[in-house]
Amino acid sequence: MSLLHFHFTTSINYLIGSADGRIYVTDSCPAAGRVSRLVSVPDLSVLTDQLPNSSLVAIDSRGNVYSASADARRDGVKSTLYRKAAGQTQFVPVASNVRALRALAVGPDDALYLKSGHAIVKITFNP
């Protein structure tokens, strides 16, 4: 067994595995007025520094990042799903009015899967 230890000076919120096997964390520093960043472990490179609504995050093998609203997990709340395409700087809304969004995952085919209430929804994007 080997143990890696990384020290962050900001608050670590979530741990995310990407489709290509990399590990990321979301961090934030409200005192500095910064929203969440998506940071690679162990090299600490920043994939994006403007991660909206970072409670649900998924990353596909092409480097597209998906993020859903922080209130998404509450019953009765309709959520918006955002996507930042690889090589782009801005997140854009790609789905809205998603009810009771509980989870995001990327499949081996790079399709995005949502758990919405009691349903699993598959979303595919053109490369």
TrEMBL record:
Gene3D superfamilies for the chain: TolB, C-terminal domain (2.120.10.30)
Protein name per UniProt: Uncharacterized protein
